[in-house]
Structure formats: C-alpha cells, structure tokens
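Journal club prep — side note

Before the paper discussion, L.F. wants everyone to see what a predicted structure for a comparable chain looks like in token form. Sequence:
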Amino acid sequence: MASTSSSPKHLLGIDLGGTKILAGVFNSRLDLIGKAKKSTKARRGVEAVVERIARCALEAIDECDLQPEDVAGVGIGAPGATDPETGRVIFAPNLQWRDVPLKAMLEKQLSLPVFIENDCNIQALGVHQAELDGKPRHMVGIFLGTGIGAGLILDGRLFSGFNRTAGEIGHMVLDIDGPKCGCGNRGCFEALASRTAIFNRLKEAVAKGRKTALVDMLGPGLKDMRSNDLRKAIEKKKDKLAKKIVEDAARYTGIAVASVINLLNPEVVVLGGGLMEALGEHILPIAEKTARKYAMDGVDKGIRIVASKLGDHAGITGGAVLARMRLQQG
C-alpha cells in the first residue's frame, strides 16, 4: 500500500459524532483500506474539535502508507443541520455548534477539498451506493443509535427538503403521552426506541426493583452500559426484562417504518446504526412484522425491509461516496 506518484487517487470519509470521530481511507472501488478513531471531546470547543478531526484524518492516511496528496477529496458527515453548499454546520446540538464553517476550517487544516452533509444523509449514501450498488430509485435508511435519524434517497438522489433538514424521523411523534424527548416534545420515535431510550427504561425499571442480569454485569447503576451488554444479557443470561424492553423498541421501530412506507412508498427500507449492529437479529423480525401489520393493505407489496451490513462503517463509506460524487460534479 505504499504511496507512488502513479497511485490512483483515494477518498477519505469522516464520521463526526458527539463522542467519537472515525476516519476511513477508500480506494476507487470504495474498499476500506485503513481507518483511525479519536474521541471528539466537544467540550473543548470548535477549533479543538476541528483540529482533532484533521489529526484523525491524517492518521488514517498514514495508516495506509499514503500521503495527503494521494487523497482526491474528503466527505464528512456532521450531526445536525448542515448546509452542503456553503459547507457550514448550521446547528449540531450534540456538539453545541452553531453556524460553524466546517468545510473552510478543515480545508485549511488538510489542504484538500472537503464536502459536508448531515450524518444520516451520508450514512444513507453509503448504504445505497456501497451496499445496494446504487440500484434502488427510492430508499429510506433509518439509523438507530444514541438517537434516531434517517436519510432519504428519492428518484436516485439524496433528498434534503426545503430547509435541508429532511429525515428527522426520530422526532416523528408516535405516542403523545410518551416519555419526554431531548427535543422538548413527548413520545418521539427517538424517545421510545433509541439506545438512550432503552437504557433509560432499564434504569427506571431497576430503580423500581425489577430484576435484570445487567445489574450483576454492570452494578446497580448500570454504569457504562453498551448495546453489546444488552445482547449478552438477552442471549447468554436469558434476561426477560432486557428482552421485553428491546422488543418494545422494535415494535415502535416497525410502526415508524410503516409510516414511512405509507408516506413515501420506497423500494427498500434499510435499518442501520449501532443498535442494529449489536441487536439486529432481535429487532429486525419484530420491526418488519409490525411494519407489515401497520402499513396500508397492499402498499408494502414488494418493499424490502432489511438490516444494513455496513454497521459503524456506513458513515465513513458515505463520506467517500459524497466526496466522489461532488468531485465528479466539479
């Protein structure tokens, strides 16, 4: 993988999250050839985070025995509302960013062309191009993690909406009397089925005296709980409480998928994100069964509901896809 002057140009994808930065280098066939990861440390402020993004990018390039000049362009997904045309992050609540010129700041650090998009849009691009070979004309990607978001591919193109915020499926209200969401509303999909929602329900149940193997695994406060802890509790410990709460989240996911099918009628609905990566085989069957139940009769005919196989790499893959697309557009 040594760099040579005749090497084809590579692409760099970056997934910027509230807690971690992941950077990946891809060849022209969109094969991942090297990556690097850093914690975000958002509390240090915008300039410090951008510097960490740049360092992570350079480490990923170095991991492949390449030089920055071997990279044609960089695509980065940021959490929150973005303006891809100006390259600014309009608002990223998990980072406490408002109106940050991320493109310009990163281009100054890396001396490479940088293109930005919303993180879920980027993940949808990655799934659509690298996993589904760009074939579906209409695809919705729903990503379940700390929060819940979606990316929409309509008529073969990424759909961003009037204010470039299309895809905020996590804030579709499913239960008006449900738990409070971080956005201020009650009963949002995110407040019912995200990893955060599942963890909150488990902690509340333990506080009320409910029994779970997770207490033996993590202590009474369920400190530092991860999605894989849930999988171990369900599969190895046969934990009934964890299983019930995950299944409830899966049913809410199915209701949301049914609404998407009724509204947009896509060819494919893809479920991805960290929660699906850890618990997909426990979530997908229930979510699909529920979606088929709540979709209007005949509307879901021929529509596939599948789990993404890209997992944590969907964001960086989509970043590489975005960079390639924008470079080709000139």
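L.F.'s comment for the group: The chain has two domains: 10-126+313-329, 127-309. Keep this in mind when we get to the figures.
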